[in-house]
Design brief:
The protein is of the alpha/beta class. It has nine helices and eight strands. Bound molecules: NADP nicotinamide-adenine-dinucleotide phosphate (NAP). NADP nicotinamide-adenine-dinucleotide phosphate (NAP) binds next to helix 1.
Length: about 280
């Protein structure tokens, strides 16, 4: 087993994920560039190799239980655990397709995918480990009708409750009742609220262990990033950061030095905590 840090990024063959791997590769670490598609993952790995970097490629589809489990087994057997895990993978949504047709895959990737990563990798965090979910500033209760706030009560609910509530949300979108129930039209918002809620709950559940073992758990918003995913949704991209620019604050949070106790269980943007309410 190596003494080098083990760092993992999901959905890392393009966009922000690729930029995260590029920057993490500057650290003395083995950095796993993971992707759901072997050819796209290899191409991204070669791109970084041409830049003089040495990421390790591994196949990882966060919608596939077996794929997540196989990768967790690999990390456990090869390295004994992981120091940095960034759950970044996200499905795209198209403006041209009805929400009812895309919501199931979207939630399965972004929310249940995060849950799969939590269940497989939180137990593998080494002392000093950092677990991050790339969420968004939309992932806050202020973007949700107060009728729905009880579905995200982070002081009381479990991770499984959130999973269940996200499945109910999917069913509501599919049956055409979501908007009358108070859900926002843009399916990205409930998804991001679910991701942030899950990190807060994980942090709550792991409080004692995290304090003893110097572990940090947070959600992060990279701000508006100029990627293929965001471009169709924002008319004005002039304020958007490049993936490499946006990755800097995410990497800062993922690599906070030992004995850092805060932020913990927060949503962080540009190195500052955003209020949940
Ligand atoms: N861009 C923004 O302005 C912005 C703002 C706030 C938050 N974020 C968040 O930042 C993260 C990255 O966004 P991005 O803009 O870089 O998006 P992106 O360019 O669409 O990249 C998403 C990545 O996730 C991968 N992915 C999709 N489904 C997957 C699966 N089942 N298993 C594993 N990987 C999968 C994609 O792989 P393929 O290439 O195979 O599709 C791609 O590599 C997301 O969580 C997003 O919500 C982005």
């Amino acid at each position: 087993m190596s003494a080098e840090k083990i760092m993992i990024v999901t959905g890392a063959n393009q966009g922000l994920g690729l930029a995260l791997v590029r920057q993490l590769c500057q650290q003395p670490a083995i950095v796993y560039l993971t992707a759901r598609d072997a050819a796209r993952g290899q191409a991204a790995t070669e791109q970084l190799q041409q830049e003089g970097l040495q990421p390790a490629f591994h196949l990882l589809d966060v919608t596939d239980d077996q794929s997540v489990q196989d990768f967790a087994t690999h990390i456990h057997q090869q390295h004994g655990g992981a120091d940095v895990v960034i759950s970044n993978a996200a499905a795209r949504i198209s403006r041209d397709v009805a929400p009812a047709e895309q919501v199931a895959n979207f939630i399965n990737t972004n929310n249940h995918g995060t849950y799969r990563m939590v269940r497989a990798f939180a137990p593998l965090l080494k002392d000093g480990g950092r677990f991050l979910v790339v969420a968004s500033s939309f992932g806050r209760l202020r973007h949700l009708d107060t009728r729905l706030h009880p579905k995200f009560e982070v002081s009381r609910l479990s991770l499984e409750d959130i999973e269940h509530n996200m499945d109910e949300y999917v069913a509501a979108v599919q049956s055409g009742t979501a908007v009358e129930q108070g859900w926002p039209e843009w399916i990205n918002i409930p998804s991001k609220i679910g991701q942030v809620a899950s990190m807060k709950i994980l942090a709550r559940e792991m409080t004692d262990e995290a304090r003893q073992r110097d572990i940090l758990i947070n959600a992060v918003c990279p701000g508006l990033v100029d990627t293929e995913a965001s471009r169709p949704w924002f008319a004005d991209m002039s304020a958007a950061k490049s993936p490499d620019e946006a990755a800097q604050d995410v990497v800062w949070l993922a690599t906070l030095p030992p004995q850092t106790t805060a932020p913990y269980g927060e949503l962080v943007q540009y190195r500052r905590v955003l209020r949940w309410e």
